[in-house]
């Protein structure tokens, strides 16, 4: 189970760190122009905060397990990312946009949380 957790967390961390860093680094008009039309509904600091939460959550999936310091934080990070993705699903459904990527990330994050709690506890 530990190997499955590492693979799942590694892929999730990669996805969240890349997506979050793009939201933090790029200005809101550039995000909207690149297909993230949902960003137009939020203030610029809110978009940056969402990106920062994704980056921190992605790091939280890996770093505690890697260092062995407070490994319980990895499934907690996965739970927090699940909540972020549920919010993303709500936004995409309200805007009548494709919510499939957010749904997939929410399911995988929830699976990581369950698996992480089983392995850590």
Task: Please name the defining characteristics of this protein.
0% strand, mainly alpha, 5 helices, 121 residues, single chain
Detailed description of the structure:
- The chain is 80% helix and 0% strand.
- α1 packs antiparallel against α3 and α4 (73-94) packs antiparallel against α5.
- The two termini are 13 Å apart.
- It has 121 residues and is mainly α.
- The mean pLDDT is 96.
- It has one domain (2-120).
- The chain contains five helices and no strands.
- It has helices at 2-25, 28-33, 44-67, 73-94, 100-120.
- Keywords: Membrane, Transmembrane, Transmembrane helix.
- One of its GO terms (cellular component) is membrane.
- It is found in: Membrane.
- This is DoxX family protein.
- It comes from Microbacterium allomyrinae.
Our Rg estimate from Cα atoms comes to 15 Å
Name the beta content range.
under 5%
Write down the secondary-structure element order.
HHHHH
Number of domains: 1
**Overall 3D shape:** elongated
What percent of residues adopt helix (DSSP H or I)?
over 70%
Summed over residues and divided by their number, the pLDDT gives a mean of 96
How many strands?
0
Our measurement of the CA-to-CA distance between the termini, rounded to an integer number of angstroms, reads: 13 Å
